[in-house]
Amino acid sequence: MSLSKDQVHHIAMLARLKLNKDEYADSVEKLSRIVDFVDQLSRADTVGVVPMAHPLDTAQRLRPDVVFETDERDRFQENAAAVSGGLYLVPKVIE
Amino acid sequence: MSGAAKEMHAQSMSELAAGLDRGDFTSVELTKSLLKRIAALDEKLNAFITVTGDAALEAAARADKARAAGDVGTLNGLPIVHKDIFCTRGVKTSCGSKMLDNFISPYDATVVERLADAGAVVLGKSNMDEFAMGSSNETSYFGPVRNPWDLARSPGGSSGGSAAAVAARLAPAATGTDTGGSIRQPAALTGTVGIKPTYGRVSRYGMIAFASSLDQAGVITRTAEDAARLLGVMAGFDERDSTSIDRPVPDYLGALSESIKGLRVGIVRQHFDAGLEEACGGRVKDAIAVLESLGATTVEVDLPNLDLSVPTYYVVAPAECSSNLSRFDGVRFGHRAENAEDLLDLYCRSRGEGFGDEVKRRIMTGTYVLSAGYYDAYYLKAQQVRQLIADDFEQAFADVDVIAGPTTPAPAFRLGDKVDDPITMYLNDIYTIGANLAGLPAMSIPCGFVDELPVGLHLVGAHFAEATLLRTSHQYQKATDWHTACPGDFR
Hints:
The complex is a heterodimer of chains A (95) and B (491). With 95 residues, chain A is mainly α. Chain A has a domain at 5-41: Histone, subunit A (Orthogonal Bundle), CATH 1.10.20. Helices cover 35% and strands 4% of the residues of chain A. Chain A has three helices and two strands; from the N terminus they run H-H-H-E-E. Chain A has helices at residues 5-14, 21-38, 73-77, and strands at 83-84, 87-88. Chain A has a two-stranded antiparallel sheet. The longest helix of chain A is centred in the N-terminal third of the chain and has 18 residues, at 21-38. Chain A starts with a helix and ends in a 7-residue tail after the last strand. Chain B is an alpha/beta fold and 491 residues long. Chain B has a domain at 12-261 and 482-490: Amidase signature (AS) domain (Amidase signature (AS) enzymes, Alpha-Beta Complex). Chain B has 16 helices and eleven strands. Chain B has an eight-stranded mixed sheet with strand order 4-6-5-10-11-9-7-8, with helices on both faces. A three-stranded mixed sheet of chain B has the order 1-3-2, with helices on both faces. The chains are: A mainly alpha (95), B alpha/beta (491). The interface between A and B is large, with 55 and 72 residues.
């Protein structure tokens, strides 16, 4: 199945990716080929097969609801581009 | 062969451990000699993103001091390299991406912590495909790694820097991660040993996530014995990884010496179909004959859904990647676009600028297969086929102890040959992906050469059968010497 240019625009928007013109052209072609390739799955007979939830057939482990991490906000924020007073700064979102 | 007769860089980790024990050399001497080798030779390979020389020498000095005081950890003073996907406190952890080129990890991954606690000395961080998405190391923001056996060729990927460093004797061992073959395929293409343990055996905490239901950490070494030594340290329960399995770690080293008499080796007919280069198939069949000469018996097994493993993977892995990589938003860490108009523009441009082509392609593939109206046809369907593939393996392991076959369809390919064709690149992982989909342990060991390029034998075991894989490989390596071959420019 071939993807349209509009579809690729929509996907890029959902994925929050800004692409340039060349990247769009390349993505339409290559994503279409990938989708074609994975379309092979449609020929598998999966009637009544329960989709895999975990490769080891085990349940998700739970832990007691207690605090075990210490507050290291300042150290973590050293990797942020813009912070102030312990907060992350982003472009204005409310007028 | 006596360890003392060989130069330090030519020795395996176990030989180096014996040398340190005997006092043939100190960890500082060993570390200095490998750092010198890296400085002299890595410009040919590009296997390292970061070399942590000062920290390595400090760790080596600490190890020598501890040894003098009689306190000897399992890996005390032994050098290792970490794939740049493992968070390493105070050191750049780039994951091969422009997105994280400025990221200094504030904490250590559990794997990094455990190896350090055992006394290992970290020489640096190895190059890799961007976010581990690639089979050739060509998607790295830091440029491709070159294969020590032929510098015009790829070492495979995504753990290509780790594999090249070990093959070129720049380090005796390196960590790697494997989501679809990223430890085993580069191991095969560089003539090294690579093991991907059972899903959940080694903690994923601090290992930058690509596809969380498939990702698993392992090692690349030159001998099965070294892999056993390292895995014994890395494996085990970790509270900080919610999918870590709470189960005792067997004595991998202790299990190596048992013979493989009576071992049932499964041969998959489909593995030797048209997709496999004939000469590679020949080497793999020779290796299986060696296992038979050591007392193993072969049984033909069927994996009827094997041909669907690559398309299944290319739905499941991108879907999980699109979710995992949504954390890179230019706000808390990583690349941030300048002069953004608004918040949406900040997200879209930071991600558009920070990610490379293949990563963007996988994020978009994942976004598409999870989007409204397509989920059932792709993601749900893929998880159903994944269950069928896992069932095939389970059935096979009722009759056999290991499955043996080729790791890759052909030896190392030339850099640039496949980079523009994602599907051909994806098919390089046809023999390795099944183990990830089913969560099984698997390893690749060198089993000969075709046109002076290494070929890998692939062994897959039942869940938690790492000891069986390591023992089979060790017994094979006792009977053969492919693993001792060294690329000419790196002797």
